[in-house]
Amino acid sequence: MKTEITELLGIRHPIIQGGMAWVAEYHLAAAVSDAGGLGLIGAASAPPEVVREQIHKVRELTDKPFGVNVMLMNPNAPEVAKIVAEEKIAAVTTGAGNPTAYIEMWKSAGIKVIPVVASVAMARMMEKAGADAVVAEGTESGGHIGSATTMTLVPQVADAVNIPVIAAGGIADGRGFAAAMMLGAKAVQIGTRFIVAKESIVHENYKERVIKAKDIDSEVTGRSTGHPIRVLRNKMTREYLKMEADGVSLEELEVLTLGSLRKAVIEGDVVNGSLMAGQIAGLVKEEQSCKEIIEDIMREAEKLL
Ligand code: TUI
Q1: Distance CA 202, CA 87 (A)
Q2: Ligand 1 centroid vs 25 CA: distance in angstroms?
Q3: Is the CB of 305 under 6 A from ligand 1?
Q4: Nearest ligand 1 atom to alpha carbon 135
Q5: Does the reported pTM lie above 0.90?
Q6: Which part of the chain is CATH 3.20.20.70?
Q7: Contact partners, residue 176, CB within 8 Å, separation at least 6
């Protein structure tokens, strides 16, 4: 399927991978790109030199285009942004902030710039700042979220900007893909279904929680802190939400979440860890290769469209 996004990025299928912290490392990024999507390294809070190593490792595994997601709340973001420019990767996506300060540097390195936005105002601002496309990410997504749903956000962003829009949040199969196209998107960003990919290094316990998740197993922690995070319900979320309701301090809440994503992804601690996943986890039923996932979605979507 050819769209403005496949043309912009030089990829076969209009599917980009979410820049998931800890999850989106080089094995997953290379596998998604090799399968014809756009794979991404999620820089998250990794030290800048680790991001450079990850970029080099993707290049050893594939000659296809790939990107890096720069998480702007990371204190190291300025250094990561510089490394990304030096490495002249194909595309950058950004999350959890405003990337305006870096856009010129990335564009002059020939990098396609695709900020993730959660509002029409931010999408407009990014178009003015020179972005090549935007990801409109609905509140169904896992991790750090805005408040508008994918169904309401995508058509409003598509009407507001002249650059192509990529839909994210709640999409995991060909039906979701086709619906996103109907809303005006030119590609989709998928996270949760790739957590359980064969090439994903996520601990088996975490993958099992995603595969066994039901429609109502999604929870949002941290609404009171201004940094809402969508995860699957467990002991950590029950304790967190109780402490939040009791009005405990930000510092105490932070102690509970600090390192909790690493605990889940690497150690497989699905009791105390942070199981970031989107609301669509209930639809994700099996571990498949990235190639199988992408081809499944495209086959179903092409039939529907
Ligand atoms: O960034 C994400 N999702 C994420 S980042 C992440 S790592 C993390 N861990 C703990 C605390 C915070 C982050 C896990 N998941 N998605 C993209 C996204 N960006 N969603 C919403 C936004 C966003 C929010 C505000 C984008 C721009 C924005 O603008 C604020 C401003 O500075 O004007």
Answers
A1: 26
A2: 18
A3: no
A4: 17
A5: yes
A6: 4-200+290-304
A7: 170, 188, 280
pLDDT tens per residue across span 49-62: 999 999 999 999 99
Using 50, 70 and 90 to split pLDDT, how confident is the model at 214?
very high
The pLDDT tens digits of the residues spanning 134-190 come to: 999 999 999 999 999 999 999 999 999 999 999 999 999 999 999 999 999 999 999
Q: How far is residue 281 from each of residues 113, 232, 294, measured CA to CA in Å?
A: 28, 9, 17
Question: What would the mean pLDDT of 93-111 be, rounded to a whole number?
Answer: 98
Cα(302)–Cα(51) distance, integer angstroms: 35
Q: State the closest ligand 1 atom to the C-alpha of 125, by its place in the atom list counted from 1.
A: 33
- Cβ 152 vs Cβ 182: under 8 Å: no
Q: What is the distance in A from the centroid of ligand 1 to the CA of 300?
A: 31
* Domain over 4-200+290-304 is classified CATH 3.20.20.70: yes
Residue among 133, 194, 130 nearest 158 (CA): 133
Copy the structure tokens of residue 244.
């939040």
DSSP E strands: which ranges in the chain?
15-17, 39-42, 66-71, 91-95, 112-117, 134-137, 143-144, 165-168, 187-190, 218-221, 229-232
